[in-house]
């Protein structure tokens, strides 16, 4: 959708968008913004839910149709929340449409200037569910001149035992397999870790990270920041 001039957001935040319904209140849902904070359009990552009140109508909207947008953004899954430790390694761990805020973060040139290593681990059930792969693979070249950050994209397909990474994120962390694939260590003194996806993944992954000595980010201090999607 066209971005209204008044709507400003930080990469990682979400918006509340709505669809008008005749003789009823608008149907409103929260969606993280995929777009760069500097883009002129707002893009959202949505999966059609069978008989879903919102997506069953959203899928039939055409160019020029109206979509409602609340005036302010929401959410704290942003890099601004990190003060200690200082930026060095950024881990973005997502399942499903929880990828959305990380796509926005990765299109903010400041992230490429601030970190030495960036790792995006994106877990889905089947290969067909992997989204935005072309765009993700293009990021290092797109932001090549913005800084010297290395970038590792680690797709995970949990229902294909032949796929290189196919176990759940908590298991890959506990075994050290995720770090091995990334070539980067999860360390309390250097890692910023963001989690976004279904609540079970968030809870289990948070516990796996805590077992490695990482802590929740509170008042700017700590490693782990989370956003539940459901």
Structure description:
- This protein is α/β, with parallel strands linked by helices.
- The protein has two domains: about 15-70, Beta Barrel (Elongation Factor Tu (Ef-tu), domain 3); about 80-230, 3-Layer(aba) Sandwich (Rossmann fold).
- It has seven helices and eight strands; from the N terminus they run E-E-H-E-E-H-H-E-H-E-H-H-E-H-E.
- The strands form two sheets. It has a five-stranded parallel beta sheet, sandwiched between helices. Strands 2-1-3 form a three-stranded antiparallel beta sheet, with no helix packed on it.
- Helix 5 packs parallel to helix 7.
- About 35% of the residues are buried.
- Keywords: Nucleotide-binding.
- GO terms for molecular function: ferredoxin-NADP+ reductase activity; nucleotide binding.
Describe how the helices and strands are arranged:
Elements: E1 14-21, E2 24-32, H1 55-58, E3 68-69, E4 89-95, H2 100-106, H3 109-114, E5 117-124, H4 133-142, E6 150-157, H5 169-175, H6 177-182, E7 191-197, H7 199-211, E8 224-228
Parallel strand pairs: 4-5, 4-7, 5-6, 7-8
Antiparallel strand pairs: 1-2, 1-3
Helix pairs in contact: 5-7
Strand order of the largest sheet: 6-5-4-7-8
End-to-end distance, in Å? 23 Å
Q: In percent, how helical is the residue content?
A: 10-25%
Q: Quick check: average pLDDT?
A: 94
Total beta strand runs: 8
The largest sheet, given as strand count, sense and whether it forms a barrel, is: 5 strands, parallel
- Give the number of helices: 7
What is the CATH H-level superfamily of the largest domain?
A: Nucleotide-binding domain of ferredoxin-NADP reductase (FNR) module
* CATH second-level architecture of the largest domain: 3-Layer(aba) Sandwich
Low-confidence stretches: none
Radius of gyration of CA atoms, rounded to a whole number? 18 Å
β-strand percent reads 15-25%
Question: What overall geometry do the principal axes of the alpha carbons give?
Answer: globular
């Amino acid at each position: 959708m066209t971005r209204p001039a008044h709507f400003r957001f930080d990469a990682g935040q979400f918006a509340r968008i709505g669809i008008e319904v005749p003789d009823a209140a608008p149907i409103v849902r929260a969606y993280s913004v995929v777009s760069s904070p500097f883009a002129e359009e707002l893009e959202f990552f949505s999966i059609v839910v069978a008989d879903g009140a919102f997506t069953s109508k959203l899928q039939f909207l055409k160019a020029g149709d109206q979509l409602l947008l609340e005036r302010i953004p929401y959410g704290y899954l942003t890099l601004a929340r990190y003060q200690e430790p200082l930026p060095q390694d950024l881990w973005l761990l997502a399942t499903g449409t929880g990828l959305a805020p990380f796509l926005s973060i990765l299109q903010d040139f400041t992230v490429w200037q601030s970190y030495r290593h960036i790792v995006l681990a994106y877990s889905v059930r089947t290969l067909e569910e992997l989204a935005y792969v072309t765009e993700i693979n293009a990021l290092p070249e797109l932001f090549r001149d913005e800084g010297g950050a290395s970038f590792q994209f680690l797709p995970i397909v949990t229902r294909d035992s032949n796929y290189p990474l196919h176990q759940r994120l908590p298991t890959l962390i506990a075994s050290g397999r995720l770090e091995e694939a990334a070539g980067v260590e999860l360390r309390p003194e250097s890692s910023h870790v963001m989690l976004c996806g279904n609540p079970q993944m968030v809870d289990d992954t948070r516990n796996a990270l805590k077992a490695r000595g990482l802590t929740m980010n509170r008042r700017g201090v700590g490693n782990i920041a989370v956003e539940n999607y459901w």
